[in-house]
Amino acid sequence: MFADAQFVFQHATGDEHAIHTCLHRAQYIGFNRITHGKDARGIKLHPRAQSFNFDSPAMDEVFALAESERIPILIAALGPKNVALAAELAEGWQPIFFYPEKAAAAWAEPLAAGQARRDPSLGPLDVVAAAPLAIGPDVSGYLDLARPMFALYIGGMGPHRDRGHNFYYELAVRFGLGDIAARIQDEYLAGRKEEAAALVPVELLEGTSLIGPEGLVTERLAAMKEAGVTTLNVTPLAGTHEERVRLIERVTDLTA
């Protein structure tokens, strides 16, 4: 079941525990804004990674399907306005760097605003949180694998904070990490990427992961559920395919 899966989703709501695999099939479509201006318009179709506008013939099948039935929408959003939009209009919302203890400070207000306008026929908002997964007494070294990614996103995914928006930097600020985020950005934009990665606080690495002894992972799962997560998108970290499968099986058991 897992051999061809690129992502594994573990539902952790109530007594329902079902693993779903998202395979490389054309019907899985993600929409990304190509620009950020008021006239922003365009999509990226996955898995082909072909960017085009809504006039593309490739969208004909999508629009035909939309006329006959609703296509479930999952919005990856960070900023307050887009988070509110997701909570109002989409079936699901997928934040990046979900940190349960900081989630309310970052998103509670826009989520509440959007859900106040939400059509009840959409059902509850599915909150999809991603996290790296490693369970064991000696797995803390996996935390450092995420340092370059955090440094890239906080430091390099946008202009300097004095000249424009980097939404990931702004998220770190809302997490209460403004001072260290500024230092990460300064180092990264100066070309000192390793130094920027070294500055990523362990607190952030631990708070956004499921890495550690089984007891700690169990606590982190409970914290994510308490913070509103309904679906987990985990990346199992292990040396072999068999070990990664066992990690998925174990985290499934831990959510039961």
Explain this structure.
By secondary structure, this protein is an alpha/beta fold. It has 2 domains: 1-136 and 213-256, no CATH class; 138-212, no CATH class. Helix content is 41%, strand content 15%. Strands 1, 2, 5, 6, 7, 8 and 9 form a 7-stranded mixed sheet that branches. A two-stranded antiparallel ribbon has the order 3-4. Helix 2 links the parallel strand 5 and strand 6. Helix 2 crosses helix 3 (100-116), helix 4 (147-156) crosses helix 7 and helix 5 (167-174) runs antiparallel to helix 6. The radius of gyration is 19 Å and the shape is globular. The two termini are 20 Å apart.
Q: Distance between termini?
A: 20 Å
Structural class comes to alpha/beta
Q: Output the number of helix runs.
A: 10
**Which of globular, elongated, flat, extended, rod-shaped describes the shape?**
globular
Give the key terms.
256 residues; alpha/beta; seven-stranded mixed sheet; two-stranded antiparallel sheet; 10 helices; 41% helix
Short description:
It contains ten helices and nine strands.
